[in-house]
Amino acid sequence: MPELPEVETSVQAIQDFTNQNLESIKIHNSNLRWKVDMAAFKKLHGLKVSKINRRAKYILLHIEQSQILIHLGMTGTLRIAEKNSNFYKKHDHVEFIFENRKLIFNDPRRFGSMHHVTEPSTHFLLENLGPEPLSKEFNGGYLFNKIKKSLSPIKNALMNQRNVVGIGNIYANEILFDANIRPTRKSKTLNKKEYEEIASSTKKILKRAIKAGGTTLQDFYQPDGNKGYFKIDLNVYDRENQKCKKCKEESIKRIVQSQRATFYCRQCQI
Questions:
Q1: Is position 89 annotated as part of the catalytic site?
Q2: Which of 64, 177, 220, 233 is the most buried (most CB within 10 A)?
Q3: Domain span at 197
Q4: Which residue in the list 54, 57, 155, 239 is annotated as catalytic?
Q5: What distance in Å separates the CA atoms of residue 174 and residue 133, rounded to the nearest whole number?
Q6: What is the pLDDT of residues 215-234, one digit of tens each?
């Protein structure tokens, strides 16, 4: 699943559509996680896109007094094509046709979504989300106060979108390795200094991943068709039984937490 760095990379890659008129929206298949409201989208024809940004793992295209809210789901991708290109790729669902080019949403497994919204902050997909991990609001003090009494393992708490948005399984593993925190520890057993380490590692790992263009996941491509390159620098994720890059002694262990793979070093992470 595309995580925050992949979504941010996509947002940066489509910024050229800002201040362009959305001439039309062509819906090939409205069947996504929720059915696309074709009538609502038709009302956006001819309007200008004033801003493109991200909230959590959602992409927002701001159009007049409303927004198009896009979630890539498990296998969703955006790609850019020439306006007059007739090339149709299997699983293309929606085409946003602009003055010179078009933006195409493709989703083989149809777990993605697309909504027309007027109040993003109160939309059911966004209203209960925590702070952005790269914002000033997210820091060790915030995290300590938010989950210091929680019985959840710290990795689960870090992936809870009500606590902080956008941290998926890959980056949760990498963040906790960087912070030297064992992912199985109960959140309430961590002290404030350890939470500060987690917050610092979160910002460092995510910024590095965004700069690199995201991870090379099988189903993730940037809109320009290139894969990201962060995976070559992963320290624990998907490295079961390989030597730890820090201590050079212990092998990386793999366990399952809440049906997700967890990787850690038993010597470095306490």
A1: no
A2: 177
A3: 140-264
A4: 57
A5: 14
A6: 544 444 455 555 554 555 79
